[in-house]
Amino acid sequence: MNIMEVLKKILTQTFTTGDVSVRVVILTLVITCVFAAYVFFVYRFLTRKTFYDKSFNISLAAITVIVAAIIMTVQSSLVVSLGMVGALSIVRFRTAIKSPMDLIFLFWAISIGIICGAGLPGIAFITSIVLTIGIFLLDLIPVARAPKILVVHAGSKDVKGSVFEVLDREVKHYKVKSQTVDSKKYSLIVEIRAKDENAVIDGISAVEGVDRCSLLSHEGEVTF
Q1: Which of 137 and 86 is assigned the larger pLDDT?
Q2: Stated pTM of the model
Q3: Does the pLDDT of residue 3 top 90, yes or no?
Q4: Cα separation, 100 vs 34, whole angstroms
Q5: In the prediction, which pLDDT does 17 show?
Q6: Please, which residues bridge with residue 79 across strands?
Q7: DSSP conformation letters of 59-93
Q8: In what order do the strands lie in the sheet with 148-154?
Q9: Rounded CA separation 116/121 (Å)
Q10: How do the domains of the chain map onto residue ranges?
Protein backbone atom coordinates (compact mmCIF):
# COMPACT_ATOMS: atom_id res chain seq x y z
CA MET A 1 0.00 0.00 0.00
CA ASN A 2 1.55 3.29 -1.09
CA ILE A 3 1.36 6.65 0.64
CA MET A 4 -1.56 7.93 -1.45
CA GLU A 5 -3.67 4.91 -0.57
CA VAL A 6 -2.89 5.34 3.13
CA LEU A 7 -3.88 9.02 3.05
CA LYS A 8 -7.06 8.19 1.14
CA LYS A 9 -7.99 5.56 3.72
CA ILE A 10 -7.36 7.91 6.65
CA LEU A 11 -9.40 10.72 5.09
CA THR A 12 -12.22 8.34 4.21
CA GLN A 13 -12.42 6.89 7.70
CA THR A 14 -12.12 10.27 9.42
CA PHE A 15 -14.34 12.57 7.42
CA THR A 16 -16.98 10.54 5.61
CA THR A 17 -18.86 9.37 8.68
CA GLY A 18 -20.88 11.89 10.63
CA ASP A 19 -19.91 11.82 14.28
CA VAL A 20 -22.26 14.60 15.44
CA SER A 21 -25.09 13.17 17.52
CA VAL A 22 -28.68 14.39 17.38
CA ARG A 23 -28.39 15.57 20.98
CA VAL A 24 -25.39 17.76 20.14
CA VAL A 25 -27.16 19.17 17.08
CA ILE A 26 -30.30 20.07 19.04
CA LEU A 27 -28.32 21.58 21.93
CA THR A 28 -26.18 23.63 19.54
CA LEU A 29 -29.18 24.95 17.64
CA VAL A 30 -30.99 25.85 20.88
CA ILE A 31 -27.96 27.81 22.12
CA THR A 32 -27.66 29.46 18.71
CA CYS A 33 -31.33 30.47 18.82
CA VAL A 34 -30.76 32.13 22.20
CA PHE A 35 -27.90 34.18 20.78
CA ALA A 36 -29.94 34.95 17.65
CA ALA A 37 -32.77 36.28 19.82
CA TYR A 38 -30.26 38.38 21.73
CA VAL A 39 -28.94 39.94 18.50
CA PHE A 40 -32.54 40.49 17.40
CA PHE A 41 -33.49 42.48 20.51
CA VAL A 42 -30.24 44.46 20.60
CA TYR A 43 -30.78 45.54 16.99
CA ARG A 44 -34.41 46.41 17.73
CA PHE A 45 -33.47 48.51 20.77
CA LEU A 46 -30.58 50.29 19.05
CA THR A 47 -32.68 51.33 16.05
CA ARG A 48 -35.67 52.54 18.08
CA LYS A 49 -34.95 56.18 17.10
CA THR A 50 -34.13 55.52 13.45
CA PHE A 51 -35.55 53.56 10.55
CA TYR A 52 -36.27 50.00 11.71
CA ASP A 53 -36.45 47.19 9.16
CA LYS A 54 -38.20 44.22 10.74
CA SER A 55 -37.51 41.89 7.82
CA PHE A 56 -33.77 42.62 8.05
CA ASN A 57 -33.84 41.94 11.80
CA ILE A 58 -35.57 38.60 11.26
CA SER A 59 -32.96 37.80 8.62
CA LEU A 60 -30.19 38.39 11.18
CA ALA A 61 -31.68 35.80 13.53
CA ALA A 62 -32.24 33.31 10.70
CA ILE A 63 -28.71 33.76 9.35
CA THR A 64 -27.25 32.94 12.75
CA VAL A 65 -29.03 29.59 12.92
CA ILE A 66 -28.35 28.75 9.27
CA VAL A 67 -24.62 29.43 9.58
CA ALA A 68 -24.42 27.29 12.73
CA ALA A 69 -26.07 24.39 10.88
CA ILE A 70 -23.65 24.80 7.98
CA ILE A 71 -20.62 24.75 10.29
CA MET A 72 -21.83 21.58 12.00
CA THR A 73 -22.36 19.94 8.60
CA VAL A 74 -18.89 20.94 7.44
CA GLN A 75 -17.36 19.46 10.60
CA SER A 76 -19.13 16.13 10.21
CA SER A 77 -18.10 15.29 6.63
CA LEU A 78 -15.29 16.39 4.35
CA VAL A 79 -17.21 15.37 1.24
CA VAL A 80 -20.26 17.39 2.22
CA SER A 81 -18.10 20.37 3.20
CA LEU A 82 -16.41 20.45 -0.21
CA GLY A 83 -19.77 20.23 -1.95
CA MET A 84 -21.20 22.96 0.26
CA VAL A 85 -18.26 25.27 -0.47
CA GLY A 86 -18.91 24.82 -4.17
CA ALA A 87 -22.63 25.45 -3.75
CA LEU A 88 -22.19 28.56 -1.61
CA SER A 89 -19.59 30.00 -3.96
CA ILE A 90 -22.29 30.68 -6.57
CA VAL A 91 -24.54 32.59 -4.13
CA ARG A 92 -24.67 36.34 -4.74
CA PHE A 93 -26.21 38.83 -2.33
CA ARG A 94 -27.50 41.94 -4.08
CA THR A 95 -29.49 43.58 -1.26
CA ALA A 96 -28.04 47.01 -0.48
CA ILE A 97 -27.04 47.67 3.12
CA LYS A 98 -28.71 50.93 4.18
CA SER A 99 -26.49 51.68 7.17
CA PRO A 100 -22.99 50.76 8.37
CA MET A 101 -24.58 49.58 11.62
CA ASP A 102 -26.62 47.05 9.64
CA LEU A 103 -23.35 45.69 8.25
CA ILE A 104 -21.95 45.33 11.78
CA PHE A 105 -24.99 43.36 12.93
CA LEU A 106 -24.81 41.20 9.81
CA PHE A 107 -21.20 40.22 10.56
CA TRP A 108 -22.13 39.76 14.21
CA ALA A 109 -24.89 37.31 13.32
CA ILE A 110 -22.63 35.36 10.95
CA SER A 111 -19.78 35.19 13.46
CA ILE A 112 -22.09 33.95 16.23
CA GLY A 113 -23.37 31.24 13.91
CA ILE A 114 -19.81 30.15 13.08
CA ILE A 115 -18.69 30.16 16.72
CA CYS A 116 -21.74 28.26 17.98
CA GLY A 117 -21.54 25.79 15.12
CA ALA A 118 -17.92 25.13 16.07
CA GLY A 119 -19.05 24.26 19.60
CA LEU A 120 -17.64 27.34 21.37
CA PRO A 121 -20.64 29.06 23.00
CA GLY A 122 -18.40 30.66 25.64
CA ILE A 123 -16.61 32.70 23.00
CA ALA A 124 -19.95 33.65 21.47
CA PHE A 125 -21.18 34.85 24.88
CA ILE A 126 -18.09 36.96 25.56
CA THR A 127 -18.12 38.39 22.02
CA SER A 128 -21.79 39.37 22.31
CA ILE A 129 -21.32 41.06 25.68
CA VAL A 130 -18.24 43.00 24.53
CA LEU A 131 -19.97 44.10 21.31
CA THR A 132 -23.11 45.17 23.16
CA ILE A 133 -21.21 47.25 25.70
CA GLY A 134 -19.00 48.78 23.00
CA ILE A 135 -21.91 49.69 20.71
CA PHE A 136 -24.00 51.30 23.45
CA LEU A 137 -21.04 53.21 24.93
CA LEU A 138 -20.08 54.59 21.53
CA ASP A 139 -23.72 55.47 20.84
CA LEU A 140 -23.75 57.64 23.99
CA ILE A 141 -20.83 59.77 22.81
CA PRO A 142 -22.25 63.14 21.69
CA VAL A 143 -21.53 64.30 18.16
CA ALA A 144 -21.02 67.79 16.86
CA ARG A 145 -24.11 69.74 15.94
CA ALA A 146 -24.81 69.44 12.25
CA PRO A 147 -25.13 72.68 10.25
CA LYS A 148 -28.45 73.73 8.77
CA ILE A 149 -29.24 74.61 5.17
CA LEU A 150 -30.80 78.04 4.63
CA VAL A 151 -32.74 78.55 1.39
CA VAL A 152 -33.78 82.06 0.38
CA HIS A 153 -36.00 82.98 -2.57
CA ALA A 154 -36.45 86.62 -3.58
CA GLY A 155 -37.94 88.61 -6.42
CA SER A 156 -34.68 90.33 -7.40
CA LYS A 157 -30.96 90.34 -6.61
CA ASP A 158 -31.28 93.72 -4.87
CA VAL A 159 -31.96 91.91 -1.58
CA LYS A 160 -28.55 90.22 -1.66
CA GLY A 161 -26.79 92.84 0.45
CA SER A 162 -29.51 92.94 3.10
CA VAL A 163 -29.60 89.14 3.36
CA PHE A 164 -25.84 88.94 3.95
CA GLU A 165 -26.07 91.72 6.54
CA VAL A 166 -28.48 89.53 8.52
CA LEU A 167 -26.19 86.53 8.12
CA ASP A 168 -23.15 88.49 9.31
CA ARG A 169 -25.10 89.70 12.35
CA GLU A 170 -26.92 86.53 13.41
CA VAL A 171 -24.82 83.62 12.19
CA LYS A 172 -21.61 82.41 13.80
CA HIS A 173 -20.38 80.69 10.64
CA TYR A 174 -21.88 80.33 7.19
CA LYS A 175 -20.82 79.03 3.81
CA VAL A 176 -22.52 79.85 0.52
CA LYS A 177 -23.41 76.69 -1.36
CA SER A 178 -25.29 78.10 -4.34
CA GLN A 179 -26.55 81.38 -5.81
CA THR A 180 -28.94 81.68 -8.72
CA VAL A 181 -29.69 85.04 -10.33
CA ASP A 182 -31.88 85.85 -13.32
CA SER A 183 -34.04 88.76 -14.45
CA LYS A 184 -36.99 87.82 -12.25
CA LYS A 185 -35.71 86.02 -9.16
CA TYR A 186 -32.78 85.44 -6.82
CA SER A 187 -32.10 82.17 -4.98
CA LEU A 188 -29.51 81.57 -2.28
CA ILE A 189 -28.49 78.36 -0.50
CA VAL A 190 -26.25 78.73 2.55
CA GLU A 191 -24.89 76.31 5.14
CA ILE A 192 -25.14 78.00 8.54
CA ARG A 193 -24.32 77.46 12.20
CA ALA A 194 -26.32 79.73 14.48
CA LYS A 195 -27.25 79.76 18.15
CA ASP A 196 -30.64 81.35 17.51
CA GLU A 197 -31.98 79.95 14.25
CA ASN A 198 -35.35 81.66 14.72
CA ALA A 199 -33.61 85.05 14.74
CA VAL A 200 -32.01 84.22 11.40
CA ILE A 201 -35.33 83.24 9.85
CA ASP A 202 -37.12 86.29 11.26
CA GLY A 203 -34.36 88.67 10.16
CA ILE A 204 -34.23 87.41 6.58
CA SER A 205 -38.02 87.19 6.27
CA ALA A 206 -38.23 90.84 7.31
CA VAL A 207 -36.01 91.92 4.40
CA GLU A 208 -38.12 93.66 1.79
CA GLY A 209 -38.26 91.64 -1.42
CA VAL A 210 -37.72 88.20 0.12
CA ASP A 211 -40.53 85.90 -0.99
CA ARG A 212 -39.68 82.75 0.94
CA CYS A 213 -37.10 81.63 3.49
CA SER A 214 -36.59 78.02 4.60
CA LEU A 215 -34.23 76.35 7.09
CA LEU A 216 -33.54 72.66 6.54
CA SER A 217 -31.60 70.01 8.41
CA HIS A 218 -29.64 67.32 6.61
CA GLU A 219 -28.12 63.92 7.34
CA GLY A 220 -24.75 64.55 5.77
CA GLU A 221 -21.32 64.40 7.38
CA VAL A 222 -20.66 66.61 10.38
CA THR A 223 -17.59 68.79 10.08
CA PHE A 224 -15.78 69.65 13.31
Answers
A1: 137
A2: 0.60
A3: no
A4: 24
A5: 47
A6: none
A7: HHHHHHHHHHHHHHHHHH-HHHHHHHHHHHTT---
A8: 173-181, 186-193, 148-154, 210-217
A9: 5
A10: 3-140, 148-217
